[in-house]
Amino acid sequence: MTEVDTTIGLEVHIQLNTETKLFCSCSTNYRESPPNTHTCPTCLGLPGTLPKLNKKVVKYGVMAGYALNCEIANEMHFHRKNYFYPDLAKGFQITQYDKPIAKNGEIKLKNDKKIRIRRIQIEEDPGRLVHPISSRYTYTDYNRSGMPLLEIVTEPDLSTPQEARELLNKIREILEYLQIFDGSLEGSLRCDANISIEGGGRAEVKNISSYKGAEKALQYELTRQKNLLRRNKEVKRETRHFNEEQEITRSSRSKEEEHNYRYFPEPDIPNIHITKKLKQQAKQDLPELPDEKRERFIKQYKITTDQAKSLTQTIKWANYYEETAKHTKPETAATWIADVLKGELNYRDKTIHQNKITPKQMAEIVNKLNNDKITEKGATKIIRTMLDNGGTPQEIIKQKNLETIEKDQVQQAIKQAIEENPEAVKDYHNGKQEAINYLVGQVMKITKGKAKPDETNKLITKTLEENA
Ligand SMILES: Nc1ncnc2c1ncn2[C@@H]1O[C@H](COP(=O)(O)OP(=O)(O)OP(=O)(O)O)[C@@H](O)[C@H]1O
Ligand SMILES: [Mg+2]
Ligand SMILES: [Mg+2]
């Protein structure tokens, strides 16, 4: 299929990790709780209740705005977006419309391409509908109702599904650095993906709840729209629904219904001034961001770009690496953390949270390796054993006999092997090269496998030649 011009824009919903909800004091830590236990009259939307804005959400929104290079509003306001659906108890969602908290930002992709951010707005999450397979009924769970969300809307600057996925990962990376978001929580990032090709109508795909899902949904849409175009059929402007299991999109409600939101100003929340003081404080609390950290790691620790990328992927790994590098040679630490440790954890389907090796212990392993106290194989063995069974490097070295031996111990073993095997020595002098291998084998036996075969080979040859 020939390449066609593809236009993609995302609306990304991020759950903020505040302790309480957006307009009430219900706890946000609802995921492990029974349905409808994190609710109150406010987040259930009962008549007569009034929303009270969580100040922390405003601060987090300002921080996100700065981190995504936006202009921060001096004054913002909330609107009611009206629609009828059982997940929305009060019949409207409190969101922002013409005065969002931030606008006109940008995010840079790997290849330096800039994706403009149109706006960032604060809004409340609706509840959740649950359809148990064992039941004829649909249930509503309002634990999620009133969770604080940031909606980040991009301009249609993306051109491939891969770019969309990269952008989502970037957003996750940045917001996790700010510690205002936890991307590992189920459903904490959801997005609507808008896509159109060559002047066709745009499809807005809803219900995407993962990075991979976004790429898959867009890929499906791209193929579908290209096929229509090829057959000279019209691509309609419509809302579609992504089915995560089947990895396809289906037409859902029509545009007319959807755009009948009848937005009007939220009368129960006053206009909010975002003061200079709050802005300053948010700026002050802004940590070093992933791109800056990556550049600094490359310069300061003299590590490769790939290693720096891997080590700055999450703030936890970056801190882990820096803590380790304090106690050992940063270059070797980078290799052993980025390549070996992360690989071993991945292989075990584990994350840094399940990493049983402290930075100090990691440094100890790297130091021993650099000082030739253990071999690379030994170091890998220590890491694997610690991940699987715990323990300290020293204990495992002892248990598994991983300490390399000193050179004079190897010399001693060579001397012994030569004395005990005059036949092999004779064979060697008579031109039988294989005799060396036999002697290496003997040295390995005497040293219980600790001598390095290559080195031993060289040392034996040298000794035999000197005594010829
Ligand atoms: N032609 C297009 N092709 C693909 N994406 C587009 C196109 N035009 C706009 N978009 C993207 O659509 C997204 C939403 O657009 P817009 O702000 O118009 O809101 P909406 O979808 O109409 O309304 P709502 O907020 O209710 O979903 C933005 O991310 C924008 O980049
Ligand atoms: Mg929207
Ligand atoms: Mg939209």
UniProtKB/TrEMBL annotation:
GO BP field: glutaminyl-tRNAGln biosynthesis via transamidation; translation
EC number per UniProt: 6.3.5.-
Pfam families: GatB_N, GatB_Yqey
Organism: Methanonatronarchaeum thermophilum
Alphabetized PROSITE patterns for the sequence: GATB
GO MF term list: asparaginyl-tRNA synthase (glutamine-hydrolyzing) activity; ATP binding; glutaminyl-tRNA synthase (glutamine-hydrolyzing) activity; transferase activity
Assembly and binders: Heterotrimer of A, B and C subunits.
Family: Belongs to the GatB/GatE family. GatB subfamily.
Keyword ATP-binding: yes
Entries under PANTHER family matching the protein: GLUTAMYL-TRNA GLN AMIDOTRANSFERASE SUBUNIT B MITOCHONDRIAL AND PROKARYOTIC PET112-RELATED (PTHR11659), GLUTAMYL-TRNA(GLN) AMIDOTRANSFERASE SUBUNIT B, MITOCHONDRIAL (PTHR11659:SF0)
Name of the protein: Aspartyl/glutamyl-tRNA(Asn/Gln) amidotransferase subunit B
